[in-house]
Amino acid sequence: MKVTLVGLGHVGKSLAFELATSSFVDELVLMSRNQEAVMGEVLDLRHGQLFVEKPTRIIAGGEEDSAGSDILAICASAPTPPGMKDRMQLAPNNVALLRSLLPPLAGLSPKAKIVMVSNPVDVLVHYALEITGFSPQQVMGTGTLVDSARFRQLLADEINIHMEDIRAYILGEHGDSQFPAMSCADAGGEPLAPTPARYALFEQASKAGFEVLRRKGYTNYAIALAAAKIIECIARDTKHTLPISIAVDGFLGVKDVCLSLPAVVGRGGVEQILHPLLDAKEQADFRHSAELVKKVIDACR
Q1: Could you report the per-residue pLDDT of 86-108, keeping only the tens digit for each?
Q2: Is the dihedral of CA 77, 81, 82, 85 positive or negative?
Q3: Which residues, in sequence order, are CB contacts of 277 under 8 Å at separation 6+?
Q4: C-alpha closest to that of 139 among 31, 234, 28, 254
Q5: In the 8-state DSSP scheme, what is residue 301?
């Protein structure tokens, strides 16, 4: 399993550490603009390989070193504007960045799966598909995976159940128009009632990323772990169901846009897209997310 990781900011470094200490990556290629800093990261990670179960070959590379990658993890991003309130502010510069980065990488690894981590992730997944010409099964983004994890943790604390035993998704845009799919949330087959208190927990979960950003200036650990989980699902063919950003397949009449829906992830990439039974308001919320993301996609042309 060969993974090329592009971009070594706070998130990229955290993801590199997680992948270097996993047991499912055989070769890890790190790419970034500052080659000297990349080499420092590589040396630091190599020095710790004695302490991991299965050592990973880690190199500082360029485009040519990425050839034959199974997975391309994209963490590269334009700088975050001070006081950023909306991830969509990053769209124009990050779409331009993808237009320069992706063609050579895709050409050298035409069968690779792309895991998009950079924001605005839904817009960037759409453009990754467009720029590379890859199939919808090959391209996915972290989407609302972390948002949903935060929500499940808060629900678990409320009802005193392990968070892995709760099925509750935040869907749609990874951004302001995301929504909780309470109509299909359950624990042990018992529906979770859509109480005002639980909608308040959703609001808390949806704002959590910006709370971390406000306090320490960036987010890195949770999103890196989420990206590593997607990569592990591909590498180990686990076929876990994850709420990730994918090309919507006509669900609720939505097409030509990428949003988060539950998807089965395995060696083939996005192997299935699941269609949750949403109530009327949730369906409207999903379509609203699609409209907002589509506007930004069009504005970046």
Answers
A1: 889 999 999 999 999 999 999 99
A2: negative
A3: 183, 184
A4: 234
A5: -
Cα-Cα-Cα-Cα torsion 239, 244, 248, 253, nearest 10 degrees, comes to 110
The two structure tokens encoding residue 218:
């960036």
CB 202 within 8 A of CB 180: yes
Mark whether 174 is an active-site residue. Answer: yes
Contact 140, 115 (CB under 8 A): yes
Nearest to 116 by CA among 180, 108, 131, 107: 131
Token representation of residue 65: 């070193």
Q: Could you report the average pLDDT of every consecutive run of 10 residues in the chain (301 residues)?
A: 97 98 96 94 97 96 97 94 81 97 98 98 98 98 98 97 96 97 96 97 95 92 98 98 98 97 98 98 98 97 89
From the list 10, 126, 162, 174, the catalytic residue is 174
How many of the other CB atoms lie within 10 Å of CB of 160?
6
Burial of 144 (0-12, 13-18, 19+ CB in 10 A): buried
Residue 134's closest CA among 160, 114, 104, 158?
114
Q: What is the pTM of this model?
A: 0.97
Rg of the chain over CA atoms, in angstroms?
Answer: 19
